[in-house]
Backbone:
């Protein structure tokens, strides 16, 4: 099973337009018209269709798209207070993202040797790798502290509010929040890096990078075509996730619907990101039985306690011979699942991360960069997380260290740009 | 071209011994004898041969092995002063590394539900992914400051000395040095993470993690079967690298030879690691011509200035019509190449990295985690780097922020362990 993963190769998979460019002008001509020459080569016949995801459409890609293997997430602070600058930034990001996801270099401008390269070049020769670029807007873009920087206060989605504090979290402000976000996902981490690199260069006059987060080993499946991956706790993660094929659930729980407020968000969704560190010194010392009771599932099979196969029904009422609940009262799947939460579900699309060792303790700072999409944070993530923060057995083994919320508008149409609704 | 890359899939590529285990005891039996049951399943018929690298042999894997796509590097401080503890650690690391590289779970001990899992489980269901585990020993293991912790001072390799300070570097001590290192490379980053996770759990009583470093997008090829990748500067990197097929060069420049001192290192090599940050604010603003003159190569083709194809000969004497050198006097390939360095070469095996954004500046901390193997640091890396640190045009665009040196002994034989020569 390949699950759509590209056969990454260096340098076999040369980008078509680069080949065309070379054929057109000859290698001896240097990079003139080559790094920037792709606009003149319209068809994409030699890029395997499975290696590209559409950028334009009704909804932004990178949400219902079958989860790619790698994430490069970036949050930005907008440094200009001029709405025109923000508009220009979003226009340029849209144009760049459309080209990058098609596997093209990002700007159709002739390249001169006496200018900085238009494209930084690290993705030359790599497959498009199913790159998606998903753009979101943070709460402060719609005004904060009585100020209305861009005149968007009247457009603020009621659902786009800073998340309330949750019990037990220990957030790093410098890797939380942000005015804008770019979620780049791809089956090659260098392609995802390149997208963030390109967009941060474009942003330079209007916005600066606030933080980035790399992720690997996706911790959820978002399509029935994908098996369930394991997170760094060794458990299958996301067995009960919404799958893109569940059209009804996607409309109920993920996509903002016509009639929801504000109207300009219809077809969009809200992204919530939380960096969740696994406290390996505690977790790795827990017995297998304890680990399974914390999650509510068998470690090997992923099946619910009391069941067998991964997708067996979760029986929350079942009791053992001693009268105790088979799935404990504080098990993660009980408290986070729809039956404890008025039937609410969220679309999880997170990744594992691993960063520096904590100086002194020798503990690895690794875990899950949790990303979830939902139609209504106030009815979905916030109450679910409040319930989990209060009682989840997993709290002893994890620590939330970053937090952010963004509104992801509907996708751009060709000729338009992401966020265009704000400037109507 | 696949270049040996596994078709990673979740969960299609189930580890054979896990399947056997399940078949043997049945899923309903839980993890007993399953997470630990692999020792009873000797053959490896359903693991594709191309997805595993040998662990035992003459030389440690992960050096001449065709570079995998991902790195998880870890350095450890040994916390015990007892040679027996160090010996026990190396014995256990060897046994674990042998099993992990074969795609097996790491300890053949029956797993009980009332004990912590022997294997943490995050690699269950993943391909072995050509995992290699390379073990090295830092200078302080052989005594420092007049103390001889383990009685190894008489065995110290003269070549294993702390690197001298180099002009312009700005090293972070907490991510430099170390008593022991583990270089885990694999075509799946989760498999590499798992190896470091497993070895750091084993180490817990004798050693603690000092730092880790993740890498992606290998920045060198080490085999003629691999094309030249691009680093995050967008240039092809390692065109002139030693390839494993060059037996003579490998013996001259990489492997410690019989007759070299000390004798116990014959078949081993010295690993030098340097985290080299790219100063993107400077680099990305440089013109294409300047970038090409800094490196000495064409950005698109990788060919030397004045040449055309990537592998064209590097003509260091060529001058332009105006009398200036075509490859400038301070070009990286001139100063780092063998002709400027008494014919010396090194085996580069580095990776790109991307970490946190620098607070305030919005600059990405990303670059190259440079790893090189050589027979003689005193004749190879040290003088080469002194020359580069003094004059390389690249210095304006990069900053060395970590540094380490390790002696990698020869490989273990079945029944033996890496570093056994120290305990003879």
Residues:
């Amino acid at each position: 099973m390949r699950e759509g993963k590209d056969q990454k190769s260096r340098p076999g998979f040369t980008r078509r337009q680069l080949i065309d460019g070379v054929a057109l002008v000859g290698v001896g001509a240097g990079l003139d018209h080559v790094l920037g020459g792709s606009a003149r080569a319209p068809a994409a016949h030699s890029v395997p269709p499975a290696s590209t995801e559409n950028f334009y459409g009704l909804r932004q890609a990178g949400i219902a798209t079958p989860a790619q293997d790698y994430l490069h997430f970036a949050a930005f602070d907008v440094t200009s207070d001029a709405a025109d600058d923000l508009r220009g930034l979003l226009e340029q990001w849209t144009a760049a993202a459309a080209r990058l996801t098609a596997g093209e270099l990002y700007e159709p401008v002739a390249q001169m040797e006496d200018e900085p390269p238009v494209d930084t070049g690290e993705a030359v020769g790599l497959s498009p790798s199913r790159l998606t670029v998903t753009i979101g807007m943070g709460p402060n873009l719609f005004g904060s502290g009585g100020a209305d920087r861009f005149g968007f206060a009247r457009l603020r989605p009621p659902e786009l509010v800073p998340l309330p504090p949750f019990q037990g979290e220990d957030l790093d402000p410098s890797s939380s929040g942000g005015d804008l976000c770019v979620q780049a996902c791809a089956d090659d981490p260098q392609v995802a890096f390149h997208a963030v690199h390109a967009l941060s260069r474009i942003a330079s006059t209007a916005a600066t990078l606030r933080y980035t987060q790399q992720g690997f080993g996706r911790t959820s499946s978002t399509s029935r075509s994908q098996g369930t991956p394991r997170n760094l706790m060794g458990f299958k993660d996301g067995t009960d996730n919404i799958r893109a094929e569940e059209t009804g659930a996607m409309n109920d729980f993920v996509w903002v619907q016509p009639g929801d407020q504000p109207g300009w968000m219809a077809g969009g969704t809200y992204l919530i990101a939380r960096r969740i560190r696994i406290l390996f010194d505690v977790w790795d010392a827990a017995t297998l039985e304890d680990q399974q009771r914390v999650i509510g599932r068998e470690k090997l099979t992923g099946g619910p306690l009391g069941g067998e196969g991964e997708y067996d029904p979760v029986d929350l009422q079942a009791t053992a011979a001693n009268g105790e609940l088979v799935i404990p009262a504080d098990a993660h799947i009980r408290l986070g699942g729809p039956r404890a939460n008025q039937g609410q579900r969220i679309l999880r699309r997170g990744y594992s991360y691993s960063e520096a060792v904590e100086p002194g303790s020798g503990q690895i700072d690794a875990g899950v960069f949790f990303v979830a999409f939902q139609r209504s944070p106030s009815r979905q993530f916030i109450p679910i997380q409040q319930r989990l923060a209060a009682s989840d057995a997993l709290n002893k083994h994890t620590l939330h260290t970053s937090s952010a919320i963004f509104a992801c508008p509907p996708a751009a149409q060709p000729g338009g740009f992401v966020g265009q609704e704000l400037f109507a």
Notes: Chain A has a mean pLDDT of 88. Strands of chain A lie at 70-78, 132-137, 180-186, 207-215, 269-278, 347-348, 351-357, 364-374, 398-408. Residues 16-218+411-423 of chain A form one domain. Residues 83-101 of chain A form the longest helix (19 residues).
